[in-house]
Fold:
Amino acid sequence: MSIGNKALSGKVALVTGSTSGIGLGIGRALAGAGADLLLNGFGDPAVIETLRAGLAAEFAVRVAYSRADMSKASEIAAMAIEAEASLGGIDILVNNAGIQFVAPIEDFPEDRWNAIIAINLSAVFHGMKAVIPGMKKKGWGRIINVASAHGLVASGQKAAYVAAKHGVLGLTKVAAIELANAGVTANAICPGWVLTPLVDKQLGARAKEESITVDAAAKEFLAEKQPMAQFTTPEAIGDLAVFLCSDAARTMTGVPLSIDGGWVAQ
Ligand code: NAD
Structure:
């Protein structure tokens, strides 16, 4: 991404859910642009430590890790306080952590509804609440919420996910209005299909259900939703996040940015 070599040097980025998939792609892109990184997400501690040290060495930036559970408001607030002390605060907040569960409304388990709303929607509120005072004080900040094509349109079987992602777009707009003259922008990225563990699970389930290969299930997924028969990559979403942090994007705020192979153009 060419927004100037190391244009984000001196900035600190927290990317929630960055031990995997899209979050990791965004973290790598921000670190590549010179930002220090606070990683977050679940996984094997030894694997995460290797990832953390590897990113720090590859991009020559500071990389820290917080195991805060995004379903818990108190852990999100504690992570922000810790980041203030150890990294000097959060300049770029990427709310990315997310989970999925698929079932018709009448069978949708309450605990899955509550977990998806907590992680995919309430965590975005708690994260913004925790970092906004610091951003206002510095007069600069970037909030990037990873929503989804499902923030703009619905699919069956995804009640909690679609409700949460539509909510994320509403929250993003509120933040954009409140922060309009504080030097802080708030935008949402709305990906279509991205081949990550979150989608792998759904592909596996479809392949099993229809007795087809995972490759054939992937082709079906794309054909059902996207005019463009290809997955978006975490790297491309990372580049879009870097652009949103650039000076050129300083008046872009409150926008849902689709990167979805034409999904919502239909
Ligand atoms: P993923 O499963 O690869 O990664 C999810 C990340 O979130 C992991 O790092 C995981 O450890 C973390 N996480 C989950 N629950 C957490 C919790 N309670 N606390 C802290 N971290 C937690 O999924 P992904 O596909 O990379 O999804 C990332 C985001 O992108 C999600 O918000 C998802 O809704 C969104 N998205 C994904 C796609 C897609 O096709 N993959 C499309 C549109 C939007």
Summary: The helical segments are 21-32, 45-59, 73-87, 110-138, 159-178, 197-210, 214-225, 234-245. The CA atoms of residues 55 and 212 lie 37 Å apart. The longest strand covers residues 184-191.
